[in-house]
Amino acid sequence: MLIHRKRFWLLVIYLLILLPFVGYGAFQALQTKVNSPLDWVDGTFPARADYDRFREQFGNADTVIVSWKDCKLDNPDLDQFVSALRTNAVFKDNSGQWYFERVISGREIYLSLSTPAMRLNDREVHHRLDGTFIGNDHKTTCIVVNFTPAGLLKRKELVSEIQSALKTHCQVSAEECYLAGPIIDGLEIDLASKDSMDRFVLPSTLMVLLICWICLRSIRAALLVFGLSLLAQGITLALIHYSGESITALLIVLPPLIQVLAVAGGIHLVNYYFDAVKDPQITNPAAYAFQVGWLPCLLSAGTTAIGLASLLVSGLTPIRLFGGYAACGVLITTGLLLSLIPGVFTVWPLKRPAKSTNETEVIQEDRHDIWYFLTTILKRNHTVIVCLALLAMLAASLGISRISASVRIETLFSENSKILNDYGWLEDHVGSLVPIEVVLTCSPDVDLTFREQLLMVWDIERSLRKTSMVNRTISTMSFAPRFHRPENLSDELFQYQLNEALTRFKPQFMNAGYLKEIDGKHLFRITAYVSALNDVDYNACLEQIGTHVESALMNKFETIPAGVTTQQTGIMPLVHEIQRQLMQDLFKSFLFAFLIIAVVMTIVQGGLAAGLVSMVSNVFPPLMIFGLLGWLSVAVDIGSVMTASVALGIAVDDTLHYLTFFRRHLDEGHSSRESVLYAYRHCGKAMIQTSLICGLGLLVFALSSFVPTSRFAWMMAGLLMMALLGDLIVLPALLLSPLGRCFELKPETDHNH
Question: Does 454 reside within a domain?
Answer without folding.
Answer: yes
